Amino acid sequence: MLLDREKRCKSEPSASLGYREEIPEITEAIIRSCEEPGSFTHINHEPIPSRQEVVSIVHALQKLIFPGYFSRESLDATNLRYKIGHSVSRLFDTMAQQIIHSLRHDCFRYDRPCSHCSEQGYETATKLFRAIPGLRRILATDVNAAYDGDPAASSHDEIIFSYPGIFAIAVYRIANILYRDEVPFIPRIMSEYAHSVTGIDIHPGATIGERFAIDHGTGVVIGETTRIGKNVRIYQGVTLGALSLPPDAGNRLRGKKRHPTIEDDVIIYSGTTILGGDTVIGTRSVIGGNVWLTESVPPDTLVVMEAPKLSYRASAQKGKDSHDFT
Ligand SMILES: CC(=O)OC[C@H](N)C(=O)O
């Protein structure tokens, strides 16, 4: 049986017509706002890089870097050469096209004179694909470091299949090659994608040595000018960041070293924040959890936050309605 309210609703004529009459005016208002000085639009320009394509490239590169782990079809000795050749040849053009789009965008948009975006796009894509064997080698050191440092990891394969840390580091290592080649947009699209799926934010401009491990990873931030040596391990919630940034910091500090340097064999535990471009954490140091550091520490230093004083008493829950926290 229909309720009265439902009956009324069903017999009511559609209200959309009256409201739809407003669409031309709404459209005009949006167009006028696009013409306002200082408004952001992207009209009449060369094709822009596609975020969706770049994300698919990331996943395709992950399959090439760790063959067999992320493919639906199994790889074996008879099809390996064919499958790798096939994906390199397909990916090569897609990658080059995306690089060309992003270079062209900057040429047109910012009047940067250029006559060879297309050539440069193919050259950079070639460099990236040539770097894959090296990427595979360095990522193997990262997987080994994660396994060696984590009793919860039951195998190297488990790390490759499932650890957000290794995914974020793999994407960082790819993006860093493009960043060093001064490809606009794509490195950040890649690293912010990894950030969005792992909670780990590694700027592609950071410099990170081999055997880098991020355990758990959620909330890790590694700033653009951070330098990290070899065999460094960090945990969730670690920030390697800049000191306070004034409102005009964007223009004043762009390109300057703002983030710390972490030397070889350092461990930084969860929730720690280390800030400043001149801050150096000396080799083999261990920085405990929840430390706030804005100054350098010499090699072989242990830095710990003294635990706040806790008091322990019998629980107030027994026989009481409210808790007594005084
Ligand atoms: C990580 C960090 O400090 O970020 C702050 C700012 N984006 C910068 O790069 O300086």
Automatic annotation (TrEMBL):
Q: Which GO terms describe its biological process?
A: amino acid biosynthetic process
Q: Which domain of life is it from?
A: Bacteria
SUPFAM superfamilies per UniProt: Trimeric LpxA-like enzymes
Listed GO MF terms: acyltransferase activity
Xref: CDD domains: LbH_SAT (cd03354)
Has the keyword Ligase been applied to this entry? no
Q: Which UniProt keywords apply?
A: Acyltransferase, Amino-acid biosynthesis, Transferase
Q: What is this protein called?
A: Serine acetyltransferase
Tell me what organism the protein belongs to.
Desulfobotulus mexicanus
